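Why this split exists: single-chain examples teach little about how molecules sit against one another. For that reason, every record in the complexes split bundles all components of an assembly together and asks for one structure covering all of them. Below is a record exactly as it appears in the raw files.
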Amino acid sequence: MKNIYIIGVGLIGGSFALNIKKLNPDAVIYGIDNKAEHLQEALSLNIIDKKAEIEDVENADLIVLAIPVDTSVIELPKILDNISDDTLVIDVGSTKLDICKAVANHPKRRNFLATHPISGTEFSGPKAAFLELFQNKTNIICEVEQTAFKLQQKAIELFVNIGMRIRYMNPEAHDKHIAYVSHLSHISSFMLGKTVINKEKNERDIFDMAGSGFESTVRLAKSSPEMWTPIFKQNKDNIIETLEDYINNLNQFKNLMENDDFDAVFKEMKDTNHIKQILKGIQ
Amino acid sequence: MKNIYIIGVGLIGGSFALNIKKLNPDAVIYGIDNKAEHLQEALSLNIIDKKAEIEDVENADLIVLAIPVDTSVIELPKILDNISDDTLVIDVGSTKLDICKAVANHPKRRNFLATHPISGTEFSGPKAAFLELFQNKTNIICEVEQTAFKLQQKAIELFVNIGMRIRYMNPEAHDKHIAYVSHLSHISSFMLGKTVINKEKNERDIFDMAGSGFESTVRLAKSSPEMWTPIFKQNKDNIIETLEDYINNLNQFKNLMENDDFDAVFKEMKDTNHIKQILKGIQ
């Protein structure tokens, strides 16, 4: 892999760039980003070797598409129009159904692999990128059978070399499950932050009273609205379903408290403590 | 301070024991706990020097009451009945109004200082205790004027020596604010855990797909129901109010999504990003 194009030089794109360069010191990493200051920053931080434009990708061996999911859906078909027969294009978006649909009938569909590295942080931009981001994380690959076998192999070798484990899923199942384990966490965190900020107009009180528990629960409320709004839009139906479940559970908990049924409150928490065993698997 | 009694040798009590011993190597740390295995564990871990019973406290210089808040309210008056005039008794509970009320007219009220070190973790029991727990954390002191001045001084010297900053509040304000910045976080986390567990019957899916975002958002769902149920009971009215606010905000967010008003969704998140600045103060 010689000519690598990173489209979107943020947390994920930038971290891919760092890893690919480490694995292939001779590769030339081209950066493309619609934010000129991000591109300059990526260059200064040696995340990319050169700036490029989206029209330059015809000589690419690998293209990593790491931009907001609404733009990915528009750009991917155009990118596929411009590549050679041997180019591998991967996306890394947090929704998979719309992007798979967008290129389902594209003549170069077999050059594309739909992936979702479960490795975000609440930070964004080139400065957030780091080499270890993908270590021991899961990469979910969708519709693997739609990608040319040689290009699948190339992609999986890369993912394994940067420390990821692979899991295969269809896009529908991916979007449904990820609504629960990722998208809902973000909304719950944002709304918790909002609730507390609205109430605690005197920030001194939050500052002084909030412990690390609050900090970890609202951490995701630092996340980028530019990135998350298109995700929520694309995965609207699944997310609304998870939100309904979540709100119902909160209402039920509130009702138990209102009815002074603290035995049931205890049981709710005891049953959910089971999350300990599940989380052991994540870290 | 020679004779120290730690009632409840868990995370907070045990961490106080470790700190007091370090500051006063000649002190004798007596442990009291209704769980015999915890007491034995605290002894084995050198968190306490000796086991004791609640009736033994008459020679105490300092008593740290670190048990669930419902039991504290019952035990504190009895403890005050048995102490000498110079004994300082502090509690560390996450609710302050009920305990202050419980001893408001006790003849030994001036021997008691109501405190809340904002320093919990999701772990509990003697094994969870560690020396650095209180470093750079806030300790909220309620009704300081009800405590004898000399005993106030003694307590504050201890808190400052173990790395805490002090903040004074009345119990009503404490319980109201802490409902937002601590108790609500716990419920939001427990219900998020419940929602995901209920949906994802196949745990393999959670294990594989959940990233560190989910992990941090549900971390508090590992917390002890034995400790938290009495807190929710004592702070019921404040917590129900916070839950109503939170549920309303979630419903509003859901409505925005249902109406495809993603400009407003974006704005909700952008406004809440402000939490970044607030959180900088916490860490």
